[in-house]
């Protein structure tokens, strides 16, 4: 376990777009919630400009709320900022100020964010501003291998089969994203198994340690 059950931790999940948090650490979110930690989930873009024409423009917002419900994250703990996709480099100061504010309000014990090695410009901005905003907080960077050339496997979190099942159930809420290869169940299972085998476990998710406070 990451936190002892008698000490409920406050944990931030920073998701540049609607589904990044679930893709990168959905299994870990499931584990943390089962251990009675409080999750605050931040989404900075509904990615409306990337929605396929056959879907209504509000589809990703509806899917996001369904995913949060599936993961048992209270609606009040979802913090949504609908910036346009692929514009984050021009609004990085605004994103930093948002992170500063919520750090001051909640003082999280741990933050999960994209990797500093992530090639997507929006992900890179969130990762770098996370490092600036949470200087006194443990920060783990989650893995999204389709966006990275390199990823340092410096932390692995043991997961149960039920955690991966919950991750897949949350991702199934995003019908508008199912055309993407990394949404396929076999990919999710195989990555979880591969990371688990590295530590002689059935399943795991991998992270880079951006900062570790002990």
Description of the structure:
The chain is of the alpha/beta class and 214 residues long. Helices cover 38% and strands 18% of the residues. The chain has six helices and seven strands. Strands 3-2-1-4-5-7-6 form a seven-stranded mixed β-sheet, sandwiched between helices. Helix 2 packs antiparallel against helix 5 (161-172) and helix 3 packs across helix 4. The model has no long low-confidence stretch (mean pLDDT 95).
What can be said about this structure in brief?
With about 210 residues, the chain is of the alpha/beta class. It has 6 helices and 7 strands; from the N terminus they run E-H-E-H-E-H-E-H-E-E-H-H-E. It has a 7-stranded mixed sheet with strand order 3-2-1-4-5-7-6, sandwiched between helices.
């Amino acid at each position: 376990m990451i936190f002892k059950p008698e000490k409920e931790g406050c944990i931030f999940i920073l998701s540049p777009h609607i589904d990044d948090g679930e893709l990168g650490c959905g299994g870990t979110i499931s584990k943390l919630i089962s251990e009675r930690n409080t999750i605050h989930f931040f989404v900075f873009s509904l990615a409306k400009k990337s929605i396929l024409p056959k879907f209504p423009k509000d589809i990703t917002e509806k899917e996001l709320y369904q995913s949060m419900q599936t993961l048992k994250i209270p609606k009040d703990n979802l913090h949504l900022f609908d910036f346009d996709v692929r514009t984050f480099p021009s609004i990085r100061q605004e994103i930093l100020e948002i992170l500063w504010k919520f750090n001051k309000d909640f003082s999280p014990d741990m933050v999960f964010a994209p990797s500093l090695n992530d090639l997507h410009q929006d992900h890179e901005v969130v990762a770098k501003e996370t490092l600036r905003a949470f200087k006194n907080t443990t920060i783990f960077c989650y893995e999204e291998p389709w966006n990275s050339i390199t990823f340092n496997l410096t932390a692995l979190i043991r997961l149960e089969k039920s955690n991966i099942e919950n991750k897949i159930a949350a991702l199934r809420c995003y019908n508008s994203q199912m055309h993407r290869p990394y949404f396929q169940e076999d990919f999710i299972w195989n990555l979880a198994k591969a990371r688990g085998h590295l530590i002689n476990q059935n399943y795991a998710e991998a992270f880079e340690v951006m900062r570790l406070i002990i």
